[in-house]
């Protein structure tokens, strides 16, 4: 029976990566002084499962490697070995190494043998060096192939006498002598002699116990290992002796390659042939069964990034919702079948229900894309652990709101910017322990990563209780680098925002942790590309907070429809500040710079939508006839001149780039209820466009 | 055809075992740990139990011990899937009432061969 093992690979990779995460967080949580045995057990189990799975699915490099880890963990689990920080660090390194191995296998790349060997060596040194009594180096799992070869070597004898005397409890482990005899009889010619002496009188007889014993004569070219295999499970539950039948005869037989003359019912020679044919077949079988596995692996390539793990609760909700929808649909078709005007109320009811269910269905489908932010947060304990060791700082990381859910795309894209921010906090924010004590702060610095929902947004905050940002320092630095006019007057907020400028690095010395000055501007750009923004608040000597504001989902947008002639456009609701009707004395015309209007002492450019998009049918051409929608997109403010406001609605975002091409001033498109396409405006792009 | 309860906390192993056995015509019910398995074994009588050893909540050896104590499972073959090549796990399993074991890594053919062995 051939089974395509590749079909299980994806699941194996998923659960292995999960297991690695569990191991990592477990290792990070190990408290050296007081080790929780359950934590060690969990780590051990994860390693154990990866070893078992990788062995079964033919990834021997992985199973060999995990075997060494497992041995080390096993000794820790049994208390045979002290848990030291050094050992934990080696194990953490091995977790990384394993992760790389698995990714390499999954992507069909070559495993980095050098790094694997290094980590394995470190593990072995840890295993053999320190405290373990059991110094035996880890032996790799014996592959089935070698077993077969060994068996072949010793296939010589011609017969066996087996004395088998089961203990009374043998049956209670589900073992059955009859089954074993059946197996023996498949090996050769079996003669069974039963010994009834042990059977008690009927009234003393316990039918659940075994009272019989047997002498078995097995004739034929049978290997000792094959017999051992059959009795392997009952070892210790029976008295067993296995003796060769007349060795001398057997040797003669071997030379003549004929069945033993001692054997009365001569073994038919064809059984010898089948025996011999079976073995090479067996031997062949094993390597071939692992080859298709490797070949088929190609299929699962790249599946990780496109698949998503969904809580079954969400699926149930979805199924439930679809059920409701089907009921509503059948109700509506019933109304439609014999429609008469008096049924109009039924129809209306049905339509109301349909609307509700469609909305609920939409919400639950969107919900499927939502993942808890813990997917991102989970990598930070390790990062903070490693970096704080490197920098000789003492830092505690606090994670808050890990269950806050965000869109999968956000989860994937926010990770790198967050790493950057946390690194910055560690490197620039938190002071050295001595400085902290001198400043009257606790020795251990605190970094808090927090996520929560606010309105239609998710807010992620990176907070530290470090030294905070020094405004004068930032200012001087910016002037020194020629990024800022020396006479410029800056608010606190503007001062802090200097760190987002390209080429601004505050670290006196560039470390490999942070400080190359290419980071923060990239961070901000990444976050803005997700439709979010980033803000800094800071108090000198007390700490800084960086908050990232992101839309909950990137697939649906709360929009305001605006009309310009026959065209409808969508303005992201979050970017609208207000809508006003203006009169002539609010408007200024600046030569060469277009029109501006005054809004509470601020002059904002006017963007005439009908000009920008060349809409001929626009009703309002004079500024007083239409409306000005005041919008703010990534700090750029302007007034959009439109005919009218239509309504607010949630729109499903359709990529313009994927379906057409990139258009300046437009971020994407959507399909309206009447089937027409409306463009979703990109405010900063629009301002740039109108300036041209 | 005989019914088999397959217990493993690892989804890939569970799928592999279930797929292999179903392919050979057995009825297979799977369980994620000892507790899950014990509950399932109480609602339905299985002809054979195949269980992983290392599992959270309730390990395979405890499961076998618990099952053996049930009147319905006194003589039912119970196999451990174990990577432990050392004797201690096997002995613990035997003491708990395991019929035998299949040593990981195993391939589907080896699994089927062993199952056929105990189910006849």
Q: How would you describe the overall organization of this protein?
A:
The complex is a heterodimer of chains A (692) and B (120). Chain A contains 23 helices and 22 strands. Chain A is of the alpha+beta class and 692 residues long. Chain A has 5 domains: 5-130, HPT domain (Four Helix Bundle (Hemerythrin (Met), subunit A), Up-down Bundle), CATH 1.20.120; 144-276, Alpha-Beta Plaits, CATH 3.30.70; 325-368; 372-551, 2-Layer Sandwich (Heat Shock Protein 90); 556-691, OB fold (Dihydrolipoamide Acetyltransferase, E2P) (Beta Barrel). In chain A, the strands form 5 sheets. A 6-stranded mixed sheet of chain A has the order 14-18-19-17-16-15. Chain A has a 5-stranded mixed sheet with strand order 6-8-9-11-10. Chain A has a 5-stranded mixed sheet with strand order 20-12-13-22-21. In chain A, strand 16 (594-599) and strand 17 (602-608) form a beta hairpin. The model of chain A is unreliable at 131-157 and 248-304 (pLDDT under 50). Chain B is α/β, with parallel strands linked by helices. Chain B is 45% helix and 20% strand. Chain B has helices at residues 11-23, 34-43, 60-68, 87-96, 108-119, and strands at 3-7, 27-31, 48-52, 78-82, 100-103. Chain B has a 5-stranded parallel sheet, with helices on both faces. In chain B, helix 2 runs parallel beside helix 3. The mean pLDDT of chain B is 88. Chain A binds chain B through residues 1, 3, 5, 7-9, 11-12, 14-15, 42, 44-45, 48-49, 51-58, 63, 141-142, 144, 171-175, 179, 182-183, 208, 232-233, 236-237, 285-286, 289-290, and chain B through 9-13, 15-16, 19-20, 23-24, 52, 54-56, 68, 74-78, 81, 83, 85, 91, 94, 97-101, 104-110, 112, 117-118, 120.
Number of distinct helices of chain A: 23
Given as residue ranges, the uncertain stretches of chain B (5+ residues, pLDDT < 50) are: none
- The quaternary state of the protein chains shown equals heterodimer
Q: How many strand segments of chain A?
A: 22
- State the separation between the terminal residues of chain B, measured CA to CA: 11 Å
Biggest sheet, spatial arrangement of strands of chain B: 2-1-3-4-5
Radius of gyration of chain B: 13 Å
- Helix content bin of chain B: 40-55%
Count of strand segments of chain B: 5
Q: How many domain modules of chain A?
A: 5
In the predicted model, the low-confidence regions of chain A spanning at least 5 consecutive residues are: 131-157, 248-304
Largest sheet of chain A: 6 strands, mixed
Strand arrangement across the biggest beta sheet of chain A: 14-18-19-17-16-15
Going by helix content, strand content and strand pairing, the class of chain A is: alpha+beta
Distance from N terminus to C terminus of chain A (CA atoms, Å) equals 71 Å
How are helices and strands ordered from N to C of chain B? Answer: EHEHEHEHEH
Mean pLDDT of chain A: 79
Name given to the CATH architecture of the largest domain in chain A: 2-Layer Sandwich
The pLDDT mean of chain B sits at 88
- What composes the largest sheet of chain B? 5 strands, parallel
State Rg of chain A.
Answer: 38 Å
